[in-house]
Structures are given as structure tokens and as C-alpha cells.
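Reopening this ticket.

The earlier resolution said the output was attached, but the attachment link was broken on my side. Pasting everything inline this time so it's all in one place.
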Amino acid sequence: MDKCFFCGSDSCDFCQLCREAGQLLRPPIPVSAERMRQIREQLGLGSAFQLFEASQVLDLYTGFGVVQVALPPGEFLVALQDQVGVRRYGVVRFEGLPDSEGWAQN
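Inline output:
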């Protein structure tokens, strides 16, 4: 594969060439089936989407720098991606799940 036109790397997630090759910027995050079901249900996504990022802090890039906005307790900003590189983002809240995966510590 040629170097990315935008960033110069051998593979990145921001150019069409890398998306067509199915490159993921990060590997999927291990998550329980029930937590994944709730994420997909709340965001209206199918089983092709895998979780690759989650945070309780929203980084907002402004003309004055980066502002970090803490989400309310129990809410998470999540990013999911399918095999062809389509991404979806959203805020979710988990209900009735024990925290054996450490989500409350993120």
C-alpha cells in the first residue's frame, strides 16, 4: 500500500485508501454481550459495528485549544466502527449492568 496522502503513514483511518483496505485505527474494545447490545440499541446500529473507543470526557477542539467536558455520571461517549470503516458516535447510559468491566473507572 502507498503512503497515506493526508498523513504520510503506511495505514491510517482518515483516507479513502485506508478505509477501502479495511484498516482500523484501533482494535475493538472487549465488552460484554449485554453492554454491546445496549450500545447498539441506544444508537440504532446493527451487529456489524464494534466498539473501539469509550470515554466519560468529551474533547472539544476550539480555536482557542482543547476543552474537556466531563459527561454526567453514568454516561459514556462511545465510538463504533464497521468492517469498511464507517464510524458512528453517540452518548449512552447503561442500565442494570454490574461494573465488572471497570466502566465506572474510565
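Reporter confirms the inline version is readable. The first helix runs from residue 16 to 20. DSSP finds two helices and five strands in the chain.
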